[in-house]
């Protein structure tokens, strides 16, 4: 990197030029829990193994740190800590959407506004008055001043530049965690294992009588594992007086033995753990039961005889204490189940979680999750996380009964068996003898910083305060299964458990037996050493301990635990001595208390190895012979005199010995390995003994190699426990040349292979945890903290060799993981020969024959391989030190690299599989090596030998092939490849800090090329390279590595130009260079900026690719670049503007890449409208819902000569290449960052050079940015939901989508204007969209539930600032485009593009800050290009009006002021350019109409105030006073004001949808002469209907709109395929004729500004109709869909639009299918007549309407709704619903009340109509006549006897036919007919007959239905049934001849009725089941009875009727019966 010296020094140094060394080797002291580390006793010469162990446990950590790590850390500003207060520096942005609530309050300043009386106003005058009465807003000062356009722009720019947010990325959510592979987690420090810790405090122990001292001993037992899981805790709770009884036996009392609280540790909590408290007492005469009896029967409180007994007992106790005070006997015990104290639910949950990770089952599983153990153990000894309190509930406990001990059940086995039974059944408790007593204790979590605590070795734990009260004791845990945590402290404890003694066949005297246990260092009695831990209230350490005694038991069980502190140096003389005594409880004259029975012993070492396990020892009766201790008692040679043994040398004494030691491995393989290693290191005499074998010096090498190979065979637990030491030793062997017996021995390869095997087994163990990169945590910790260069200053020459020294201390850091297979020698030829970077030297291609032979596929004899054994001084970095080096010095990194290269087979495979470990070792050892060397004389390039560099090259090459080979295999292997890939990247990342960077760049380049050659799958290839580069780019000196200040423009021409020429060239050469090339990814760029070039190449390839799985890769590529830019932006070193300009220049090619990928970006504009619309199978829908870019963009691209892709037109169909929303957003924020930070002059020059096609692309990109960075706001948390689009959603926007699909600049605009900002939009569509959890700005509702208000506010604050800043950058960019391109005079259609973006941005919820600047820019545009704007950009102008007008109604004063000024300027320039602003007038009026009809939160008060402000401008504008302009403005404003007045009314009726629609209808009607506005209002109505789910009405609105368009199209052009005006629509609805155009002389479509809207075109017409068809389909009127398409199809045919025709016909097919399938099941609506009565109703008084309600609306529902609504209007008491349907007599009503009469009505048809209305649909469509019936009697009651029951039928005719464009229609005519009682009877009988016929003929037959109807017809009990009707009307012939006909008709009705009954009975016979036979008989009997009763009446004819009649009479008669006939047909039609 020589050229760096000549570069831009100031900047380079400021950014921290490459420091000589990035890596720093640091020694950090190990944290120690105790005040002093645990150490062996002083003054002992330790053997080398113990020394090594202790050294390992106390030496410092050696850590390699990065000096600049923090600087470019992406998270530096984003980390929680430092970013905590960032939001406080932000300015609160004000958004309209968040101020709407306070809006009205702001406005009240002007006083209350009078609501206009609508009745009598002449709109003009009244509005005028009303407007002038308002107070205008303050005006913008400079608006009417004359400024040059340039000055205007300059002022705008200055304003925009102030108060900007310097770091864009500080506002942007940080990169997704899952993409953050570049983070290597720092492993946990190795530390002592602690489980869940609980504190047990004993408070009091009392029995009913206190006569003697009692002693407690506590331990934990796991009954499921049948194991004791803690050591004993001894506790003395006696009073001082009782304790005094034993004074003679207690030499001293140490404080540590007075503890009453213990800290227990439980690694595997479960419900099977019991805390067992055993209580002992001083030995006395008698069985346990006898001794315990007084405790059960006596009470201290009782007087009299009891008192005497107690005194006597006390005296006895005292004598026993004096005589037998040092012996104990068992007394009582009690178990406590810990399940009651653990929240086992939480613990078990944790356990199961952990097991889930381990793939295990329930917590009872034998292998219950080591991970849990680890998690619990990680609650480190910083006591704050020692043990999570929630898992233990602190509890006090009082125990009042104890179990009596039983002499024959004392062993732990008995105890565990008893506990298991005890847990199973409670009956056991009743069988056991109990003692009353009191034990108080407390169990709680261990508190933080528990002061004054002692470890199991009695070392004080920090903090250890001075005030010495009773200490707490930590109790050592014996975990139920292995805990894999390496030893980190010195611990050396031995536990002895005497278990059973069998003296059953012995002499009678041995009955009360105790064992004295001593730890001896020789055979003399004085050699007992005080290493036994004392019990309670005594010395800390004692020389002997006695077991408790069972009275009169010859084969007692023991439960004693003897804890011994083992000496660090053990010899053959150390042994355990057991002495057996009989104790006399009765004092006999002259007899001693103890009687010796025998001896036994156990040597501590056997073959120099600690003895542990179960032993059955014989007992000797005599004194032991000399030197007994060197033999074991079982194998002692025969002595003279012979030893007398109990039972002839049988093992009668069973004892168990266990060790807990971090010195003794207790594993044969490890033991042998360590012994042999130490025999090499220290002077030993041969042969040495290892276990049972003797090893001579000659066999030493062979044995050591064997033991190295066997290391991996040792059990996992000891291997893990001693892992640090084992690895240290192996690495020592790897580099240390050994001379054994004069021969040089080399263990390198064996040691290396052993390391590989250990690494392999640790990774493969299911029990051990791994980090996120799959690296074994134990190894990661070892490498990070423990590993250091092997320390070789020892004498390692066995007799007859020189000496050797190795000095190198050092350390390192890296993570990842890898695998590989053996590779042929071809790899050696793949050395890198050259490099694109000019400053990188070409690597020596020194081919090494020896290495070639090693790498070749032939098996090689390793003894002859190159060993780098004696390294030639000349070869090895000769410059390192002047003196010659000792020839036997090996460097660890070189040896390790060599071993990696020469490994073969399985070893090689494992090396590559777990390469991360070896890489980390390499780097750490290299770092230490560099740290120790003399850097001054060693430039980077010559620090490492060429041979080492070759090895590194080979390793990288082989690993790259390995990755390529694995990645294409099944997932398991490909995951492996990804991990290896990451490891390799981290390795090279680290090498950049250690080696020559040119060399490393060569490796990187080689890696990329090699992968390309090997991999076919593009997405895999890019993905792998991306992961790799991402890690390299996270290097803290990334910018310097990329020579970022060498922009191509300022690249030095000479090899070493002067600094001055450099600085000047950076600006002046812009002119000379072709600037465009700076934005391209050129070869020159890639050469100069190596890493960035590679990254951009990958990004471009990923975006360009179109293959499976590419979208994930694209996301990865984009987020890599995002995190890079983000880290620069937030890097304090880059905060200067000049530096950012340089950095932005480095990233300019990204702009080119983004522009090329424009068609693939997710289109936020479309997704907002479509969100979640289900994809259908047809291509049209597919294209519509594709989230690709919109079509006009695609067209723009197609024409661009800069387009790199071959074909663009199919882009909308390239579904899979479309980027997801989050990827697009990330890419766009990068684009904005570059635009913000790049040199603005450079950007302008670049823009000026671009062809207009390319410029359009930039504008399209900006357009996309606007919708992408829209502010979603706090409210979105409640409103946004990504559920599917409801049918009711935004009809208009969807309609436009269907119409235009982005044609014309107004397309996108209108998509947005339909939706109130921030309200009902959801954030994205793509089904496969992966929502980003951290991206708070776009978080979804459900993610927000758990956030506090403060957090939500903070998020809103940051996202508000992001939206503002992003939009301001977009605005800056547009200004650049305007200035650059208009200077270059290439402004053909650019103005439209710029306007489109500006206007689009106004459609979103923007902050006042942005709006102020945006309006300023707009005004500058209007001033500069007014004429162009009004002539060419008509569409844009219309949209602009709409947007600006919307902001005129803002509740925020600043926004309103800006919007008014802009609107006024627009009118003024429009007038100036055409001296008539009719077009703007039209557009403003239409915009207002649209605004009013659509926006619910729109505020007319503010808008009115704005109108007044504009009026003020017009009055104050002196220049225009002479023109008609002010008058025209006033006219326009008054017109707008009257529209607003209608709006006020609409507001009032917001809750009454019918009234609201009437009002809108009225407004639309008022625009009959203004088609554009009528169309707008019809669309507004459609939208309102859709929201209310009235789809049919919405469709009708659109049909009317289409008819309107058709009228005007037929005036403009006469095309035979177009509909002839509204007449053509008659089949759809008879109402459409209202749209027929007013005569031509009134309105001409050619007139300026009329019918100019986009809908007045053929495509507009088709769009409206298609949308109407959709809605009809939704509303279930499928027949109408057909009629609609009849008009559409000829137009499509004329346009040859076959794609649309396919779609249309498929929709028709769907409609017809629906008709067939749904048939009668469709529901078309229910109708009610509603009459309003009462003056309160105003206009509505005495009005009658027919309301159309949803199908199954019941009368009470509509009644409740109307009553509720009007109750709110007039007060609940003032509204009354009239319950009947009789005519209302107005005079009887209360004038102060409002009455509503509601009646259910049915459609009514004349008989002739029924012929045409055949289907169910026809009977419910196009209906305008309805009927209801009212029963009455002549005396006024509604109901009466049959003979007096009359009926009134009322027929209503409505003004329009249903369905119409509203849901209620006025009634214009009513007719009434009255039916006489006999006519009513005829009607009823006909109805009954119809029902019977229907039930009889039903297919398939329905027996229940038939029986029901039949029962109602023939049942005997039917009231007012057929029989009664007949008896009333047919019993006799009527007197009045006028009734003859009716009588006859009724008779015929009965005739038919009885016939139908017969048919029904017959049919029923065939349908009944067996059990219904009787029922049928009954029915039949009833039928026959009825028939008989009716027969005489039916057969009686009226003779007069059968005589010839005068003709005239008959005509009149039939005429008279008109109503009757009509009614018949109606009723008959009803039943069908």
Describe the structure.
Helix 27 (946-967) runs parallel beside helix 29, helix 36 crosses helix 41 and helix 50 (1408-1432) runs parallel beside helix 52 (1453-1474). This protein is an alpha+beta fold and 2032 residues long. Strands 3, 4, 5, 6, 7, 8, 9, 10, 11, 12, 13 and 14 form a 12-stranded mixed β-sheet that branches. The protein is 45% helix and 12% strand. It starts with 8 loop residues before the first helix and ends with a helix.
Defining traits:
6-stranded antiparallel barrel, disordered C terminus, 2032 residues, alpha+beta, 70 helices
Provide a quick synopsis of the model.
The protein is α+β, with helices and mostly antiparallel strands. The chain is built from 70 helices and 37 strands. Helix 30 packs antiparallel against helix 34 (1090-1104), helix 42 packs across helix 48 and helix 48 (1349-1383) runs parallel beside helix 50 (1408-1432).
Rough outline: extended
Please work out how many helical segments DSSP would assign: 70
Average pLDDT, all residues: 77
The helix content is 40-55%
Largest sheet: 12 strands, mixed
